[in-house]
């Protein structure tokens, strides 16, 4: 009998060859067999796993927005360009004075990530999706002083960063999550540039693979702790569990000392985080790939200290992934079931909570969920491993009494052309003081502003 390591090696090699064939022969891969939207909501349809010989590779090639085109706003809403001509804007953060910070960022150098046939193919796929550009490594400040919905001031706010993503302001300190560390900068309201050297609060898992490089950041309501979302170093831990140390989790950091502890884990790739009105921490999670177009639903869920969501051994509760050979956790851990499915392969990244805003009132009036006064805005970056494509839009999930209800409502759509090319891809979302929504579009190089129609 061949050694287990040889079996694994052959499996990875075959998988890489299959992915290469999938890129060349898209018609041979699988297709969704469930009704549209059946894998979305509180009780999603969970299909049986499939293992097609050729994994599905189906991504919208990035071309940017044609002149005069914008995303399509939902009923009762309008959209306009807040700022354009940016360099791969990934995340947005609104400061108390109304200034908007935009992380212009992309993946850092990852010498081990693109190794082998499969790694090479994935690099080509991601480049086609618009993720192949160098990282600008800066945060830009946008200011709309006259309130007309267009930022007339755009200046470099922080430069020389390392694939920055999440941001949080606590008092007179601004925190930035680089791909490898959380940094602290002094901040004065109204300033347009920070030149002071940062303090490193805590280091973060990174390294030469750094598969999911983005690091989300959120401060606790009392400002004492910081929460960092850290994605896995692989799809299903095929690189071994040692490569996953501190990953597939949300970390909790003491803001003053930098002491870092695990808060919740078993989350393949958590990205955006937000607090609901009842004080719960919510996150959106990108689930695993290559088990068919109808699995596994990405999700929105609250997490509490000690929660375990099953990755890599289980998906959506206690559904066992037969591909994962690693020994089960010892001692056994309870697997928490996600609360709300967002659909398979939609790639949720941005997350922003909102309550009692004009935008929500407009959306609620246009939907059947008229009793909802709060909810979560979510940026769905879009699928690569599904046929037909899914995601590529911004949605609102209504909440009632602190819990999601019903089906999502489209806020922005129309990011993909009729012939399947990506004009834009939404990432980070943020709500400003007037209740308007800002959306970072990393393919369109634009920040969009969505507001209620008068």
Describe the fold and architecture.
With 454 residues, the protein is mainly β. The protein has a single domain (4-32, 39-452), classed as TolB, C-terminal domain (Neuraminidase, 6 Propeller). It is 10% helix and 34% strand. It contains 3 helices and 29 strands. Strands 2, 22, 23, 24, 25 and 26 form a 6-stranded antiparallel beta sheet that branches. A hairpin with a 3-residue loop joins strand 19 and strand 20 (319-320). Helix 1 packs parallel to helix 2. The model is unreliable at 1-19 and 21-27 (pLDDT under 50).
Number of helices: 3
What is the CATH C-level name? Mainly Beta
**Which stretches are low in confidence, meaning pLDDT under 50 for 5 or more residues running?**
1-19, 21-27
User: What's the structural domain tally?
Assistant: 1
Question: What shape does the CA trace take?
Answer: globular
Q: Approximately how much beta-strand content do the residues carry?
A: 25-35%
The whole-number mean of residue pLDDT values reads: 90
């Amino acid at each position: 009998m061949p050694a287990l390591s040889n079996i694994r090696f052959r499996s990875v090699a075959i998988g890489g060859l299959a992915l290469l064939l999938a890129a060349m022969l898209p018609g041979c891969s699988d297709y969704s067999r469930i009704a549209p939207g059946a894998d979305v909501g509180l009780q999603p349809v969970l299909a049986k796993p499939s293992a097609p010989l050729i994994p599905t590779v189906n991504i919208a090639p990035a071309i940017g927005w044609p002149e005069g085109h914008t995303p399509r706003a939902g009923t009762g809403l309008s959209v306009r360009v807040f700022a354009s001509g940016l360099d791969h804007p990934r995340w947005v953060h609104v400061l108390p004075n109304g200034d908007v910070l935009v992380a212009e960022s992309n993946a850092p150098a990852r010498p081990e990530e693109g190794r082998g046939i499969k790694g090479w193919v994935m690099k080509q796929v991601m480049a086609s999706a618009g993720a192949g550009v160098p990282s600008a490594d800066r945060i830009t400040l946008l200011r709309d002083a006259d309130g007309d919905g267009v930022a007339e001031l755009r200046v470099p706010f922080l430069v020389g960063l390392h694939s920055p993503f999440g941001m949080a302001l606590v008092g007179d300190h601004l925190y930035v999550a680089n791909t490898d560390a959380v940094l602290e900068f002094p901040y004065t309201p109204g300033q347009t540039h920070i030149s002071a050297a940062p303090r490193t609060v805590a280091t973060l898992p990174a390294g030469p693979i750094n598969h999911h490089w983005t690091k989300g950041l959120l401060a606790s309501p009392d400002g004492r702790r910081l929460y960092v979302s850290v994605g896995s170093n692989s799809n299903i831990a095929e690189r071994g569990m040692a490569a996953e140390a501190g990953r597939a989790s949300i970390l909790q950091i003491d803001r003053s000392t930098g002491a870092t502890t695990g808060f919740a884990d078993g989350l393949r790739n958590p990205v955006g985080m937000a607090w609901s009105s009842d004080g719960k921490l919510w996150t959106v999670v990108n689930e695993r790939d290559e088990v068919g177009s109808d699995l596994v639903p990405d999700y929105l869920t609250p997490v509490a200290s000690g929660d375990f969501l099953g990755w890599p051994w289980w998906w959506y509760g206690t559904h066992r992934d037969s591909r994962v050979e690693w020994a089960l956790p010892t001692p056994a851990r309870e697997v928490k079931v996600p609360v709300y499915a967002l659909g398979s392969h939609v790639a949720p990244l941005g997350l922003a909570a909102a309550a009692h805003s004009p935008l929500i009132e407009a959306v609620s009036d246009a939907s059947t969920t008229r009793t909802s006064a709060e909810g979560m805005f979510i940026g769905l970056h879009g699928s690569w491993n599904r046929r037909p494509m899914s995601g590529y839009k911004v949605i609102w999930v209504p909440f009632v009494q602190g819990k999601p209800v019903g089906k999502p409502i489209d806020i922005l759509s129309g990011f993909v052309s009729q012939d399947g090319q990506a004009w834009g891809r939404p990432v980070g979302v943020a709500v400003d003081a007037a209740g308007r929504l800002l959306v970072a579009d990393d393919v369109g190089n634009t920040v969009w502003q969505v507001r209620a129609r008068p």
